[in-house]
Amino acid sequence: MNRSPLTRLATTGLPLLILLLTGPTAPAQDVSSRIAGQALIAENPTDPASYTAYADFLIARGDLKSAEEILEIGRNKANASADLLITLGEVYEAQDRMARAESVTREALVIDPESVDGHVRMGEIYFRLGWPKSGMESFRTAVTLAPDATLPKVRVVGGLVEQNKPAEAEDECLKFISGDPENADLWLSLGQVFEKQDKLREAFTTYGQVLSLDPDQAEAYARQGRLFCRFGQYDAGRTACGKALEIDPQNMLAHAYMGIACSNLGDGETARKHAQIAESGGMNMTAVWKKLGN
Predict the structure, then answer these.
(1) What is the signed CA dihedral for 92, 82, 53, 42, rounded to 10 degrees?
(2) Are 259 and 275 in contact (CB under 8 A)?
(3) Which residue of 77, 162, 213, 291 has the lowest C-beta tally within 10 Å?
(4) Residue 81 and residue 263: Cα distance in Å, rounded?
(5) Cα–Cα distance for residue pair 69/138, rounded to 1 Å
């Protein structure tokens, strides 16, 4: 499935989780402007995909309020659609309007009780509301409905870590990997679980396994870069973070540790540049500013 534009605008509330929510499959016709979006809806007023396509365009530009308005119109005028409601729930969640997010996502599951996206989203919402038991039930339901899907499994592992159960998360992740040993995303989750337990060497080796399965996995490079920095190997950290940013220029973890590595290598200009980018993405860059004397 295609990634939702909200993947860059909203955090999941489960900080360990790196795989971001994949939203409903986008319609065949993309929207390139507001005029095109309005025209698409005018041509297909009962098709919920018209509203989600226009909303995706607005979300990608950070206009959550307009996206909300369009999706609410679609909710009332288009044919009933779980995908539209799930997207609307994402928009509400991105605005921290959790009660509304829960309500519309629950409505989506009434329409389609077997929506894997819906159960994953509901699990995310429950965790943000402070109801981890309900969140885990939703994640496990998603795994049952889609046993071959990666995202629900990653959410189960991350949910256990969020509840400070890293040993249980490790066991669960290894169980998932035993059934899908070539899945780089599951190995990435295992590396994060190792980090949570301060098993740093195991984490580093695991990220190497991720890269052997998926050489374009930017997050694995970024996390190796972070570990290099923790080991005091700043030159290697800079190289690893550079590889991550070649693949994904928006990877905030890579920007953060590129800043840390460069500040320790005496490259203040580069350190400052990447620290500013990371800080704008919500990362705490106090270590760099202290190192640079700011």
Answers:
(1) -110
(2) yes
(3) 77
(4) 50
(5) 28
Q: Could you read off the pLDDT of 211-270 as tens digits, one per residue? A: 999 999 999 999 999 999 999 999 999 999 999 999 999 999 999 999 999 999 999 999
Q: What tokens appear for 171 in the block?
A: 């066991």
CATH 3.90.1150.10 fits 164-215, yes or no: no
Q: Looking at domain 217-294, which of 1.10.1660.10, 1.25.40.10, 2.40.30.20, 1.10.10.10 is its CATH number?
A: 1.25.40.10
What are the tokens at 173?
A: 């992740």
Separation of alpha carbons 137 and 157, rounded Å = 13
Q: What is the pTM of this model?
A: 0.85
Find the distance separating the first CA and the last CA of the chain, reported in whole Å. Answer: 44
Q: Taking the CB of residue 110, how many other CB atoms lie within 10 A of it?
A: 11
Structure tokens at 292: 């640079």
Nearest-angstrom CA–CA distance, 170 and 45: 48
Class of the CATH-defined domain 1-162: mainly alpha
Mean pLDDT of 160-188: 97
In Å, the largest CA–CA distance within the chain is 60
Write phi, then psi, for 174 (nearest 5 degrees).
Answer: -65, -35
